[in-house]
Every structure is written in structure tokens, then in C-alpha cells.
What does this fold into?
Amino acid sequence: MPTFDQTLNDAAWQAAGEGLTRVSPEAVRRALAAPRPGAGDIPTLLAPAADAFLEQIAQRARETTLRRFGRTVALYAPIYLSNHCANVCLYCGFNCNNTILRKTLSAAEAESEMARVREQGFDHLLLVSGDHPREIPFDYIRDAVARAHRRFASVSVEVYPMDLAQYTQLAQAGCDGLVLYQETYHVEQYLRMHPRGWKRDYAGRLRAIEAGAEAGMRSVGLGALLGLSDWRREGLCLARHAAHLMKRFWRTRIAFSFPRICPAAGGFQPPCPVTDRDLVHMMCALRIAFPDAEIVISTRERAELRDRLVQLGVATRFSAGSRTQPGGYRDEAGATGQFDVHDRRTPAEVAAVIAAAGYDPVWKDWDRTFLGGSTGVPSPAGRPRPATGFPRSV
Ligand code: SF4
It folds into this structure.
């Protein structure tokens, strides 16, 4: 039986595209009328034939979200720990070939950023960094998690891929969420976008997500960087990936993000631009098929679109007031950001917009004590370790 990454080879990618074009309007009507559409309906809901049904798709997605999440929108903020990186990802401002102002936060600077973010009301934090073995060793990330855990109810990481032992240590230090976008599920395009560096390991990235779930992460964040490849097939692969993870790790919640490429150092231009309409279509289709998944929208998107998305009522988690440079909450000029944030409103302003739309802005919706006082980390003892096969230890 092929492993999940083997099901995403180039032939499968091409076949997926051909399959989408064969979907009929009648099939879309049937999927929308089904009592419980699931992952198997995603090819129908994302097909070109479904474009004409966007209004109905959005309505169904909104009803599904209301039933599962009520009128709530959770808020979180990222803190960038370091913009050093040894990888060449063509689309990213932190690409090691770019000449930018680089910085890794000291422990005191990280504490200061955490204090600032906490003062703004956030209780859910995302720690982000580039991938550089000397500048950002594993111990540094684990210590940052432990510091953040003392201040925040929920701490997630969006850093380089790790193995089961490392994710287990992060979970024990207080990390409950892992975000690791595949960037693109199209293998050939993935290799073109990552010509050098550890990140070329497409299958290793997929395995890392499984290692994180195995280590007991409460939530795993999946996403494709929209603009790198055909969004319909990316949506299809995201759904397959989520369904695969849900079968193996039923206690782990899936979160879908929809990051669109933003202007950044290096001036990368997306080869397959994704319109607002496409973005909404993809988001709503995934919501219908995955009623329990978080749908995350970041400050990459314009304020005007984010406001419309709040009213649409499908996304359940928004970042706000984000800075993408290390130290950015105290000193925006001290380092270069990963990309240009589009929504630069304060967290309070974003919360006010959510409230004005009739939704509750939620600063905290989880606490580790929900797990009965345990760390929430199942013991890895006695379980086989997955062969993550990373080429280095950090
Ligand atoms: S996407 Fe991540 S790994 Fe790639 S250059 Fe940017 S920070 Fe480094």
C-alpha cells in the first residue's frame, strides 16, 4: 500500500486536475443536498462546475460553522523568534539568498515580545522562526515554548520540521499546536520552489506533521501557500491530507490555513495567482467537508476582505496586529519581516469589527487544565517511532 506522500506524485496531480473537469453541475447539486458531505465530496465542491454554485456553497459553509462553533471568532498572534534561515525557498523573504536585516531574539527580547502580545489581550500564541541549525537550535525553540507557556493558555509553533522525540519535548514544555504548511502538494513544483536546503525533503515535511500529531499535539495546522500551484488541486490534496491524519490521529484537531503569497524581499511573483473568490470557494468547500476543522485567516489578507470573511461566518480563527519581524512588537525597524502584512489594524480594532458583525471575539478558548492537569502528552514509550528520516539533528 502506498504511503500518503506516494499518493501525491505527479501522475496523481495530473489525474486530479482531469477528474475535476469531469464533474457535472448535477453532481454539485447532489453534494450540496447531501445531509453530511464529507472529504469524498471535495472534488465535486472544488470543481470548475461548482463555481456557479458559490452562493449556495457559502451558505452551506456558514450554516455548518454556526452549528459547530456558534458565533465566535478566536484571536491569536504570532511572535517571530528569528528570521535567520539556511533554506532557499524562492517565495520567502527569509530565503538565505536575500540580503535582509537578520535577527534572533535573545531570551530577554522574546520575553519582552511575549509581554507586549499578552498586554494586547492575546492568550493564544504562535511562535515562528526560520530554519537555521546554528542560529535557532532545538533547545532555543524548546526554551521559548516553556517561556511562552508561563504566559499563554495555548502555544503553537511554526518552525522547521522535527522528529517525534523533539515534538514530544516541545509538548512537554507546553506546546499544544503545530503549524507546518506543505507550501504546495504538487511535488514537481515543490522541488522547483525549493532548489536548495533541507526543505527540499517533500516527504520528510509530511512525515513531520505525523510525528507532531503522534507526539500529542492537540492541533495541527495544514496549508498550501496559495499562488504556487492550481488552487483547486491544492484544496483536494489538503482534504486528502486532513482525512488521512484524522484516521490516524482522531484526537488531533485539524486547522486549515489559506496563506496567499504576499510581497516580500526577493520580489517573488506567484505563478498561479488566487483571487478573493477562489480563496472563499476553497475555504467554504473545506468547511463543508470538515465541520470540526478550524479555518484560519491571517493578516496576510486585506482588512476589507477580512471584514467580509467575518461576516461570511466561515473562518473561526483570525490573527490580529501581527508583526512578521523578530522584535517587531517593540521595534519594527530592528529586522526585516517575512512578508508585508496587509491588515495593520490593532488587535482591539479587529476585535471591535468582529463584535460589530455579531460575533464574540474570543481571546481564550482552551486551557491545559481541560486535559485534567496532565501535560496532555501521551507517553511515546512502547510505540514505534516513525522513520522521519531528517538529514540533521538540530
Ligand atoms: S519558508 Fe521557512 S524555510 Fe523557507 S526560507 Fe522562509 S523561513 Fe526559511
